[in-house]
Amino acid sequence: MLSLILIVIASAFFTGIIIRTKSIASGRKGPGIFQPIRDVLRLFKKGVVYSETTSFVFQIAPTIYFSSIVMALLVVPFGRSKGIISFDGDFIFFAYVLALGKFFSIISAMDTGSSFEGMGASREALYSMFAEPAFFILMGSLALLTGFTSFQEMFAALHIGSYISYALAILGTFVLMMIAMVENSRMPIDDPKTHLELTMVHEVMILDNSGFDLGLILTAGYLKFAIYGALVVNLFIGMFPYHFSIPMFFIIQFVLATGVGLIESFMARFRMSHNAQFIFVLTSVSLLIFFGALLILGKFA
Amino acid sequence: MIPVSDIPEIEYEDFFGLNTGFLFNSPERHCVNYFGYRVGKQVKLICCIADDSTQKIQISSCMVESTDSLDSFTARNFCFEKFEREIHENFDIGYKDHPWLKPVRYAHNRADQTKTIANYPFYSIESDELHEVGVGPIHAGIIEPGHFRFICNGEQILHLEIQLGYQHRGIEQQFLEKKKLLQRTTIAESIAGDTVVGHTTAFSQVWESLCGFKVSRDIEFARTIALELERMAVHTGDLSGVCTDIAYQLGNSVFGRLRTPIINYMQEWCGSRLSKGLVRPGRNQFPLTPELAHRLAAVLDVYEPDFLEMNEQMFQLPSVLSRFERTGVVSYDDVLSIGTVGMAARMSGLNRDIRSSHPFGLYPEIGHQPIIKHHGDVYSRVQIRKAEVKQSMQYIRNLLQGIPEQDDSEPSFENPKPNSFTLSLVEGWRGEICHCAITGDKGELIMYKVKDPSFHNWLALALSVRNNEISDFPICNKSFNLSYSGHDL
Question: Structural domains in chain B?
Fold first, then answer.
């Protein structure tokens, strides 16, 4: 329950902080931190326009996408506090319920019949496919290390004590954040600000969505970022008391958002063909974590 | 300016041999204009070939019937391709061995009215493996209309076809219909909104030459400075645009900010950020006074360190370089054969710069050395922009050392000489601008022809994206930054 509340609060300002960081870095004043939320509220008040070439898939996809994110959100724990749903192997549920949402957003993009959206869908599918092994090797290593298979038990049992486990937590942070960048189509994989359909990944898939549906998709995006932020926080807080871990949650979320903003300000995005290579690197980093876990367990003679 | 009767009029066979012969194996020669106009029921073709090494322009002409079916120049030399398509579109002259006589810009008085923009014959490839992506004519950004059709194999572009003509306003016809000089000058200003000084200077030179007007030094001085300032402003803006397309926010905002003082200075000077109203035939509307010159020096002093620092930052950032290098390459052979001009030629080692090959204004004194790169990729084009801005700054500073006396006398124009042909070449920031005019028996304009650098350079863009990823198209496009309205006229 606690994680749900914290993530919803964090999602309200996460994207706002990224945008604000970018504005400040480029010498502009920039919009307020809650502007993304205001945009979404405005969209929620609007009606929806459907293209005549689309079928029912296009109409149900935003709702399914949004609910898949909410479902995933329910299994995320916060330190000692379990997520609303928690069972053995819930991290697999987490990954695939997100994948289900993504599947629907991909077929809804294909449904519009636009050549742009088809391209965006194929890119998104490719990148998610490459990101998937990284996530599972990471979570699998943690499961191996702790001997549990649910998010809450894994994180609770993760003791940060030795140097290797520090290294693992940092590598884990890197992998999770990069997966978050891929999943949320941020730089350097995708440029959320671009107006050029040919270079877009995620943005081009939702070109035909409008009004309430667009609001749902955007809200889902904000939530998703905060969810990955929460997973990163979980790597560190372990069994800390709440008066310590709750401020830490917000500080880490803030640092992550600022970091994303700074990366987006001071570098160019990758060439499209380098993206696949880059995402694949995440899998190798996860493999490092896996070997680290084996080291700690003394599996190497 | 020469009398029309001095242009040798020869049989088509000789005309064909002469002009294609000029260009054969001679990279120093290029065709600056080739067009036709009606004389009675016949069509007179005029071909102008410039020789960059001797600074001469060879002009020849030929009378043909519009029912003729001719050998095409294109079969010998590809740079005539677009000229011949235009002649075919306007006069229905047939060409036997032209590869594809597609419409160019759908002029309202075109010969075949059944050809419309809606039934443009696109090149297509039948295959289950390939897909077509159509972009435009309405674009996501605030730019002009043009349709781009890509044939792609996955993410890779096999072929790009660019269909233009949406912006056609009948500029050349307007020059004949509007009789007042001021009207004509404002039309010249509107040919391409980003090359106001370039086109107006070209028009002014045409008019002054037709009227036998001797331009005073202060007018030349103001035009030269304005041309260089226009170059600086647009190049800086384009650097910002290139940064936007690779999502490099710092470069985008810094170069965007740096463009502003330059165009603001134009407003200070002539009341328009786009330099409209600055250049007028025969007169110096807004003399560059010592006070204005002082201000300009101050603007440049503030501009320079930031510009250099930003370039240094940008050109050492790996993520930026990886997007620039080896993206959108056009080879030397390609740019030579399709006849690109300006930056689109200099990027691949082809020396095309009117400022040095056919100097006008104060350029003979400056002794301009063109900046030439050899890779023909986005990196080369960006490097040329950077180097040209630095060069322009240097030229402006040198020019400001000797501000000429103002000549306040009201210009007295004679009437344009009858039966004359004149041609003016100006190096705008995008490349060579060519304006030609022909007068009739009473000295009235009977033909006005404009060639914007974009006319040929669009094809270079289409070639540059081949075998590149489709997501690299925007950056290739921006690195050329071609004009739709300059092409469509």
Answer: 2-104 (3.30.460.80), 171-488 (1.10.645.10)
